[in-house]
Amino acid sequence: MKPVQFNNTVLRDGHQSLAATRMTTAQMLPAAPELDKLGFAGLETWGGATIDSCLRFLNENPFERLRTLKKAAPLTPHIMLLRGQNIVQYTSFPDDVVEAFVNCTAGAGMDIFRIFDALNDVRNLKTAINAVLKAGKHARGEICYTTSPVHTMDSFVNLGVELEKMGCHSIGIKDMAGLIKPYVAAELVRELKKRVKLPITLHTHDTAGLGAAAYMATTEAGIDTVEVSIAPFANGTGQPDTLRMLAMLEGHPRCPKFDTDALYKLQTYFTGVYKELSKFTGPANERVDADILIYQVPGGMLSNFRTQLKELGMADKYDEVLKEIPYVRACLGYIPLVTPTSQIVGTQAMLNVKFGRWKNISQQAMDIALGKYGRTPGPIDPEVLAIIEKKTGQKPVTERPADLLPPGMPKLREQLRAKELPDGDETAVLFAMFPQQVEALYKPKPAAPAASPVAAAPTPPPAPAPAPAPAGTNGVARHFAITVNGVRRNVTVQEV
After folding, report:
1. C-beta separation of 93 from 347 below 8 A
2. pLDDT in tens, 329-356
3. Which of 32, 112, 429, 454 could make an S-S bridge to 73, C-beta 3.0–4.6 Å?
4. CA atoms within 13 A on the CB side of 321
5. Which range among 30-34, 63-67, 236-240, 290-294 shows the weakest confidence by mean pLDDT?
6. What residues pair up with 229 in beta bridges, in sequence order?
7. What pTM was estimated for this model as a whole?
8. According to the model, what pLDDT value does residue 306 have?
9. What is the rounded distance in angstroms from the CA atom of residue 277 to the CA atom of residue 375?
10. 490 sits in which H/E element
11. Helix or strand or coil: residue 476?
């Protein structure tokens, strides 16, 4: 029997789920070459909320992160999470913008694209899948797993069949909230194996304590790959830890072989990074919480949601908002809770708690009800739809949402030129999603204030001649981790 393969998510979903997506490129770089040596089938390094976080919080260019990580870990395929027609944002974009984004990402070094749609509407996957195939990269079509009165085993298997017909190279079962129970997961894998000829990957979270058991059960059922992380960016709202899964599979004929000493060293390193990100971590994300089986909130959202409610002065309303989520989700057609729908439902639950049910409705929740995100799995609650139709004066659309959008790239380039910003495709696709953040990234930074006059210091000794720069790095920002007086710092050096 072939060993089950492991993908590692520590550089993307691991810190998205447990540290609000705040790990910097400099914090990743010391670990990337070590991860690259271990024999993982793939490293998830990009996509999801990391692009937003790079721009909004870390003052990093996401494409530079991808190029830098690809250079640091060239041997293992890199994986990204792509939200179909939403790219990595919360709304649909024109086809030409999606195609340009995929081309830029492939050119920057991405190998495997995990492509999903929050509603499991295959119409929203078509453009992204075709663009990945045209770029000569691996398209992994994702089935967003959830539970509701309208989601069945047959519906998930039929979606897998559709993904194979669309040309996907493999299929992922994306259990974003850690809901899938072990024997259900095994049955889904077996049923998919009967109907499709593609490799299958299971991606789950250990939020409810089911993740590692689901990996065990699907290993028995013939799963090809499971996705793991590295503690402390593992378990809880993250993926099960690599060392933990190796221990659970020890003695099984499909147990893979890894250098456990190297994994322990990486765990020690990431423990230091976890401490550096302590502002964004906490026991609430680390614990097992079976309530998630009711609320169905993804791990990455839980990590960010606690932070956001705290910033809004609603930290004491966390449990109340969480309990409102299943009600909002049912009213909006039992949509799976995955970005962007998880944030939309979470925001509307917060508004319902703060102002009263449906007294204040977010634009995105109205767009879900009006079909602007695609076809919902179940019907919209008639009373809620009536409120939204009255408020907007609109009726629901039935077309693929992107069919209603004109091409976007020419206008984006014009806007960038008007702002005297670079107008290449990379900047344009980022600007389409995060205009203010991109503008801030390219704005000249204010010069540091001049030092105050002080007494003359002793003349320092002559500086030694600089060592020659390594070939191919002239002008490139290089990231280092240094320790000064026992304190670890991340620094970026721009070679000139």
Report:
1. no
2. 999 999 998 878 888 999 999 999 999 9
3. 32
4. 25
5. 290-294
6. 241
7. 0.85
8. 76
9. 39
10. strand 487-494
11. coil
Rg for the chain, CA atoms, rounded: 23
Percent of the chain with pLDDT over 90: 77
C-beta separation of 14 from 274 below 8 A = no
The residue to which tokens 């259990």 are assigned: 175
Measured N-to-C along each axis, helices 299-311 and 341-355 cross at an angle, to the nearest 10 degrees, of 40
Which residue shows structure tokens 């609000």?
A: 20
**Orientation angle between helical segments 62-72 and 425-433, nearest 10 degrees:** 120
Q: What does the pLDDT read at residue 444?
A: 72
Tokens at 55, concatenated: 């721009």
3-state secondary structure 101-159: HHHHHHHCCCCEEEECCCCCCHHHCHHHHHHHHHCCCEEEEEEECCCCCCCCHHHHHHH
* pLDDT tens by residue, 250-286: 999 999 999 999 999 999 999 999 999 999 998 878 8
> What is the sign, positive or negative, of the torsion defined by CA atoms of 438, 440, 443, 447?
negative
Backbone φ, ψ for residue 109 (5° rounding): 125, 0
Most confident of 213-217, 287-291, 311-315: 213-217
- Under 8 Å between Cβ of 145 and 156: yes
Is the omega angle on the peptide bond into residue 232 within 30 degrees of 0, that is, cis? Answer: yes
Comparing CA positions, the residue from 1, 68, 481 lying closest to residue 276 is: 481
Could you give the CA distance from residue 70 to residue 481 in angstroms, rounded to a whole number?
18
Quote the tokens at residue 190. Answer: 């077996």
Cα–Cα distance for residue pair 156/159, rounded to 1 Å? 5
